[in-house]
Design a protein that fits this description.
Keywords: Acyltransferase, Transferase. With about 180 residues, the protein is α+β, with helices and mostly antiparallel strands. It has seven helices and eight strands, in the order ββαααβββαβαββαα. The chain has an eight-stranded mixed beta sheet, sandwiched between helices.
């Protein structure tokens, strides 16, 4: 996994020692439910999920340039029923770092990486329609709205149906407007 450095962030490979830092943000109600999962209940749960992420090699850890402590994750996930050049973007960030433009910076860097260094043709991304902060990140990063869909999630032990807005960026859109993404 390639290390990606931006003005304020480092996107790097995850490591088992990140479990406590992951738990620090994954235990909060501000993170998991906005991404479709129940907050973590223990460092062990975070460690298990972290180990899965390490095995799939689709997720980068997000740290600041001056501190290697994990503050979030960002990934490009392959959907089995999609063509191999499509990836779904997913991300979470510790609430202490919200509202600073850090996730926008990380997403733009990953878009540049995906279209410049891999064979990815399309990046999809989505948010729950009530998650305005994630919507702003997605729109600032140049994603184009496609549609709303209903999805089922297991949150807090219950099946919950949520409306998700879905967006895309294609390689052609990227090539037409590279400067939008390369200013991170």
């Amino acid at each position: 996994m390639e290390r990606i450095v931006t003005k304020r962030l480092v996107l790097r490979a995850l490591k088992p020692s990140d479990a406590a830092a992951m738990f620090d943000y994954a235990k909060t109600d501000e993170v998991g439910p906005q991404a479709g999962w129940t907050p973590h209940k223990s460092v062990e749960e975070s460690a298990n999920i972290l180990n899965y992420m390490i095995r799939t090699n689709e997720v980068w850890g997000i740290t600041t340039r001056d501190n290697d402590t994990l503050i979030g994750t960002i990934g490009l996930h392959k959907d089995e029923d999609e063509k191999s050049t499509f990836r779904s973007l997913g991300y979470v960030l510790h609430p202490a770092y919200h509202g600073q433009g850090l996730m926008t910076e990380a997403v733009k860097a990953l878009i540049v990486y995906a279209f410049e260094q891999t064979n990815i043709d399309i990046i999809g991304c989505g948010h729950f329609t009530d998650n305005i902060a994630s919507q702003r990140v997605i729109e600032k990063c140049g994603f184009i709205y496609q549609k709303n869909i209903e999805k089922d999630f297991n949150l807090f032990g219950f099946k919950v149906r949520k409306t998700c807005a879905e967006y895309e960026i294609t390689i052609d859109m990227y090539k037409e407007n590279k400067l939008l993404w390369q200013q991170h």
